[in-house]
Write a structure and sequence with these properties.
Blueprint lengths: L7 H4 L1 H4 L39 E3 L7 E8 L16 E9 L2 E8 L3 H9 L27 E5 L2 E5 L7 E3 L6 E4 L15 E2 L6 E6 L6 E6 L5 E6 L11 E2 L3 E6 L2 E2 L2 H7 L5 E2 L5 E7 L8 E5 L3 E11 L2 E9 L14 H5 L6 E8 L5 E5 L5 E5 L11 E6 L10 E6 L4 E6 L4 E3 L4 E3 L12 E9 L4 E8 L9 E4 L10 E5 L5
Antiparallel strand pairs: 1-31, 2-3, 2-32, 3-4, 5-6, 6-7, 7-8, 9-10, 10-11, 11-12, 13-14, 14-17, 15-16, 17-18, 19-20, 20-21, 21-22, 23-24, 24-25, 25-26, 27-29, 28-29, 29-30, 30-31
The structure holds fe (ii) ion (FE2).
Amino acid sequence: MSTSSLPVTERYGKTLHPGGQAPTDAPAWTSGVDNPYLHGVYAPTTREVVSGALPVEGELPRDLYGAYFRNGPNSVHAPINRYHWFDGDGMVHGIWFENGEARYANRWVQTRGFAAEQESMDSIWGGVLGPFDFTLPGGPLKDTANTDLISMDGALYALWYESGKLYRLDPQTLETLGVESFGEQLRRRVSAHSKTCPHTGDFLFFSYGDRPPYMRYGVRSRDGRFHQVDITLPGPRRPHDIGITPRFSILHDFPMFFDPELFKRTGKRIPLFHREVPTRYGVIPRWGSDTDMQWFEFEPCYMLHVVNCWEEGDTVVMVGCRTDDPTLRPDRRDGKIAAMLSGIKLQASLYRWTMNLRTGETSEGPLDDLNAEFPMINPRVLGVQSRYSYHQIIPYEIPAAFHGIAKYDLQTGGVTTVDYGDGVFGSESPFAPAADAGPDAAEDDGYVVTFVTDRSDWSSACLVYRADQLSDGPVARVQLPIRVPAGFHATWMPGAELA
Ligand SMILES: [Fe+2]
């Protein structure tokens, strides 16, 4: 039998199950679906648990006080069309640290789509690979809230990369409290990577869609002042993140987009990279409108995640994880799901752009060539010049299986890396400031926290590193009661306690 005629899951089997065993806690229906995004590192779990104090190797620091939360796709029901990893119902895994002890809990985000499918005990919505059924309530895709997590005024929110409702979660229980509208003021969808300004508490949000206006941007101040504007774009775009500084927001227009006519005819979004079209970044005053926007052109590229932005006089600096050529290159050996698999093979490295608001001058260039993404910084320096960032090192074959952390030092240009170990994959690793770190504390005075899962026995743990001594390895390893599948974004919430 040639390799190409093996079922895809089997072809990827060696990488997905190095120990030869599949996870035993995955839903029974997954065994009948030949789709790699439902197996191995991606296999959803059927379990929701709340733990007591967990076993710890090493010592949990006393000044690690708060919770690490991580979101990710975790399907409940068998898919009704070709499944993509991005389609899974949102599940949040949390670990709470206090007085040198740690406890864990996980829960699905109880979105409206999740509730409707619980009621029908089956999938109602298909996934991003289409075809799309526009007659379904809320649109052809289920808003899973599976992508990102942010905290604001003591609440935790789950967000979706396709722009969805702002789901409010209880940071003490992970219970879904409902859709946040700030007293009916927020009537628009909100994309993952909308942000809370650490200096003012302003909520900076954006959304994008298939029909005009292709992008929307807004601000809500802590005292409830609201500002929402439409952004003019040449067509539907797929921005994923924004940058913020104290005075500006930086919006993205990448030459990676689908043909709206083809979409209308076929109901399929086929993203193409247009190498002849420049990348554009729009700098808009925080409370400004479309007419205040200043656009800057750069070499064509794509970027999922911004590391940080800041102002240097008249210049806005943006550092991010840039993909030089996001063209999808299907591997024919992957058969009918070749296009789907190519879409997730992420190649991105650290890069810097500058935009002079007075002269219009720009500059750009690479800072490193390591394939690393999912950057995190000390939230205290969001929007101001920062020195350190913590990225996941990404293998090519299964990009979700992050195999280590890279800590960048923008001041020296240095990078420190640690590896999670053979067959072990990690999660996005936010910076957790030491509980007593004041505004003058060193930027890396704190911890880097992550979940890891060992593919040889599917056990999961939480690792805690000292951010300023990353290469020494974790200071504590907390055994988790259940397996944590590969996922998306994480956040650190200072002072959060498990109920
Ligand atoms: Fe993201």
